[in-house]
Prior knowledge:
This protein is α/β, with parallel strands linked by helices. The protein has 2 domains: 11-78, Peptidase S8 propeptide/proteinase inhibitor I9 (Alpha-Beta Plaits, 2-Layer Sandwich); 151-463, CATH 3.40.50.200. The protein is 20% helix and 18% strand. It has 12 helices and 22 strands. It has helices at 11-15, 31-40, 61-69, 135-138, 192-201, 237-249, 251-254, 275-285, 363-367, 383-400, 406-415, 429-433; strands spanning 22-27, 44-49, 54-59, 74-77, 80-83, 155-160, 174-179, 222-227, 235-236, 256-261, 289-293, 312-317, 337-338, 343-344, 347-350, 354-357, 372-373, 377-381, 418-420, 423-426, 511-512, 516-517. The chain has a 7-stranded parallel sheet with strand order 7-8-6-10-11-12-15, sandwiched between helices. It has a 4-stranded antiparallel sheet with strand order 2-3-1-4, sandwiched between helices. A hairpin with a 4-residue loop joins strand 2 and strand 3 (54-59). Helix 5 packs parallel to helix 10 and helix 6 (237-249) packs parallel to helix 8. The longest helix is centred in the C-terminal third of the chain and has 18 residues, at 383-400. It is globular and about 65 Å long. The N and C termini lie far apart (59 Å).
Amino acid sequence: MLVAVSFAATPAAHASDDGPAVPVIVEASSVAAATAAVDGVGGTVDLALPAVGGVAAHVRPGPLAALYADPALRVMDDATLHPTGGSFGSSGDRAPAEAKHDDPKHDDLKHDDLKHDDSHHDGSGPGATRPGVDPQLAALDLPGDWSAAAGRGAAVALIDTGVSASPDLQGNRLVRGPDLSGEGDGVDHYGHGTFMAGLIAGDGTASAHTGTPHFGVAPAATVVSVKVAGSDGSTTVSRVIAGIGWVIANRDAYGIGVLNLSFGVDAPMPYRFNPLSAAVEAAWASGITVVVSAGNDGDGHVTSPGSDPYVVTVGAIDNAGTPQTGDDVVPAWSGRERFRHYSKPEVAASGVSVVSLRAPGSTVDVNHPEGRVGDVYFRGSGTSMSTALVSGVAALLLAHHPAATPDDLKGALVDGGTDVRRGAPEVDANRADHADARPDWWQHYRVAFDGLDRDLDDGMPWTASRWTATRWTATRWTATRWTATRWTEAEWTASRWSSTSWDASRWTSTRWTSTRWTAEAWPSQGWG
């Protein structure tokens, strides 16, 4: 049975207040059922959300009480996500030496279900010493055959603030999907999405004449931009869910294999009752590897949807400007949390003084000119940046292993990672590309969405022959990938919500997870 849940106020409070209409998300057994419920109380449906069987709507507080009282519905705030403020232009990018999460209570935070090698790459791997790449790429230990053609054939969906035109994203590799921000042009007027796109797939054209061209991890991959936020960087939970639904519905049309979500919101409920978790799990079940930031709230805090156990959640590393991992530390602000049956993040990548594409004239660009690196590039720090780098690695691996399932990619990323003290394994692209298959590795968690009836209550629908018994080759990691019922535009059936009711705790209005944009160089480290 469904129960009404509010993260804004109690039903009684709404019943006595007939003020202006408020934005809510109403979930039911289907979009049609949710629409009928909103229409029935005189509300206005703003957006269909097929990924969670619901709608975004505006409803006056008095009639809203009737929706809360309906046992077939689930009602909650349509929370606003804002960009991070107050840290732009800060010189505090690099974590102090003492900020390494030395709290003994976290000493046992290990990814027991995701085996990985204890060794640290020492800068001698195929990609670590390659000349002419940024330290952020060198630290990823790129495969030996990495080149400007890396990632060709792979497509990464980027739900963000849009993407501005750039010489580094030419050649029909930027696909503009829907603009849900209300601005209607797909262009990045805030400056966040362009930066992420460059880290994923920038091809270094604008800096080719320099000694250190600024490449993305998968410079031949395609970026499919879904704009959900405008010039102030703010968006809503419903817009993000709608963007995820569009990516699922258009997965085959654009060949989307990876979804980058460089944002986070504090959600007071367990993941199984979180509509963002439902949406990202629907994408995961559709064969899309979802890569999400851990957030920038430090130890004991991981934002949603990074708190969902299925997705690849990424923390930040300060790589000290070197390719080896022995001198790497975890910045104090990088999110990290232990849940009942799992820990987050599972992996980490460079997130301090990272260089990527600038969006000239955008909000961040105008307000923080100190972050500019020449005319085309910019510098910033945060788990947003780390997430985009790992999405690039996922695209690179998917280009090599096109039959891989999301679980396959996650297993390879974690198994191939190198340990960092007090932190998640740092992604090593070369080792992930050559990771040993483990046929017994398969994620088993209760799902947060309604999919293939009860068969999906403890895991995703990958076939038994997902992993080969031998070493993964450059052609296939799995004997088959899931091609059964797609999650596209279908409505989820037989909703199963807990009878537990959550109180009036509110989604907090939080942020895109980039903490600082700055031109400050690290002490004794020049970044060109």
